[in-house]
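Predict structure. Chain length: 432.
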Amino acid sequence: MEYCEQNIQEDIEQDIAASEELIDHISLLEEEIEAIQLDEQHLDKLTAQHDQLLADKKQVDENLSDLNSSIEQYNTDQPQKVAYQGKKGRAGFWRFISLILAAGSLGLWWVLVKMPGSDLFNKVNELLQANVPQFTAEHYPFLLYAGGGFVFLFIIFWAMIVSHKGNIGRLGEAGKTLAEKLRALDSERTAESDENRDMLLRRIENSSLDTKALSEALQTDLDYLTQEQEKLAEQISELSSELAIERERVEKVRDLLEKVDTLQAQVDDKAERNRIRELASELLMGATRHLSKRFNHVIRDHVSKTLPLFTDNRYEHLQIDEDLTVRVFSNEKHDFMELDEISSGTQRQIMLAVRLALSQEMVSRKVHNQQFLILDEPFAFFDEERTERSLAVLPELSDDLPQIWIIAQTFPESMNFERTIYCEREQVEKTA
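Prediction complete.
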């Protein structure tokens, strides 16, 4: 058990030393983490800024694309609108002429046919005879026919005007759309109200600005959007680089933290193992104390039977402490004495009694049968009186030890043995 306890303590010390090294390593890693000075919210802020810049650039790209599309549509529709406006004007002119001619033809027919003999009839008739003498009453119906024809032409020109007006309105949508986009762009860049700018937007809205003038007028807007596009692209590039660096820092800190967690887990594991070892040590020490007490009790019982016989009742029994310190009870002093307080001969008697007690306990526990005992020079430092007393006690030691062999240089002459063997260099002699 002492060997087990020693091994446990060595394992505990080794794990403590290893834990200290791990803790030192953890401290170095934590210092490295601290040196990085990572702001946990900085990456989120950079990501949000990056996403916002991407959204802004996407909006600028869409605005530029929409503006170019609107300008292209305006350049396509504006000449067509001007052409339809010309057609509408000409159709309006001829519609007006048709109306005049229809009204004149029908009015003249009405006067000549429906108002004969009236003053107006006479005046018109005189005027016709003076300028168109060949125009007679048989030609009056042609005035009605001519009036109907002019009315038909009026309707045709009116329909053409309506059609041209629809085309003009459809083609004018490009100007309105372009004007709306330009106003929205002015709002985004918080441009101050300008009379010339307002007039330009109205002309664009009405599609009255030709394509060349439009290109010159909107070059500033296109340049602004292009510059915004380039500026945002540059900011995104710079922020992307900063994001990459910050992500590397975050990843490095994450790796260091994982290493710290791994090392801390090892420290915790060693601490848990040491806790278990300490518990095992306590259990082992408890078992040792229990066995020691039990052993001491058994040894004391055996010794208390032989020691008084060895010492002529001067010493009765032993007291063996947990640290195996041996003290003997003196009947003369009525108290326990340390071994160094008694004579060396008595000490050897006590040790002989302990060895015999151990032998008795081993036989009773392991063999469970009669056994013999060999003692090698047990009385080497005994005087003759102690030797005789000890030899007299041995046959009464235990029924389990009926046979005891004693090896010695000499024996007291007064002692008799059942069997004696003399050993010399040249021969061995046995006597009954």
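Summary: The chain has a mean pLDDT of 84.
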